UniProtKB/TrEMBL annotation:
It comes from the Bacteria. Gene3D superfamilies: HAD superfamily/HAD-like, Putative phosphatase, domain 2. This is Predicted phosphatase. Signal peptide: none annotated.
């Protein structure tokens, strides 16, 4: 079922990467599980770090890892995890309807600025969108070099702008800014999905971007 949403007052559209533009949540959960255990072993600390990492999808991997490990181990985990992610994205395609959705948004409102807003690594995301010929639809990639909140403040996003995301951390950022929030649940992780008490704050829920119809 197609759901319409108005972009008439929206100057900026922010789109999450993992779980919205690419079906990668399950892979990333498995990959960080492997990478942390390669370095930290099968320890209680490793399990706690894995659970925290996956619960707070959408936040920079370095920020999450530094909560549990010293920098030397953080670097080793990130090297292993980054290698796994790069190999995964080489063979991955965009989610159903993503490119057509971006085309429709740009066609109906050429002046709108569209950003990827992600806690992922910029070069991994850039490589993916170039390979999938999606780069022309985005004005900028706002990634893990800063927090999502910082990116929103710097870009002067306002309450008429829209964030499309898939996690409770995405929704929390949207609510605190505030922005309108569209929830994509077709590729969501049980570890990081919004809590029941957050659902009332969601403006629209869709399985994937093919279910969204932008209107003026």
């Amino acid at each position: 079922m197609t759901k319409k949403f108005s972009v008439s007052n929206c100057a900026k559209l922010f789109v999450d990467f993992d779980g919205v533009l690419v079906d990668s949540n399950r892979f990333k959960e498995d990959a960080i599980h492997q990478s942390i255990k390669e370095v930290a072993g099968n320890t209680i600390l490793a399990k706690e770090a894995i659970d925290y990492f996956n619960e707070y999808a959408g936040i920079s991997r370095k920020v999450k890892l530094r909560k549990y490990f010293k920098m030397g181990d953080v670097d080793l985990i990130m090297q292993s995890y980054g290698k796994k992610c790069r190999e995964f994205f080489v063979n991955s395609k965009s989610t159903s309807g993503s490119i057509d959705f971006l085309k429709r948004v740009k066609a109906i409102k050429p002046s709108i600025k569209v950003y990827i807003l992600s806690g992922g690594e910029k070069e991994e995301i850039r490589s993916f969108i170039l390979k999938n010929k999606m780069d022309s639809y985005f004005n900028e990639l706002l990634c893990s070099e800063e927090s999502k909140s910082y990116h929103l403040k710097r870009s002067k996003a306002n309450r008429d702008d829209i964030f499309i995301g898939d996690s409770k951390s995405d929704l929390s950022v949207a609510l605190s800014h505030p922005l309108k929030f569209i929830y994509v649940d077709g590729f969501v992780s049980d570890h990081s999905s919004p809590t029941k008490d957050q659902f009332d704050a969601i403006n629209i829920t869709v399985k994937n971007l093919s279910e969204l119809e932008p209107i003026i």
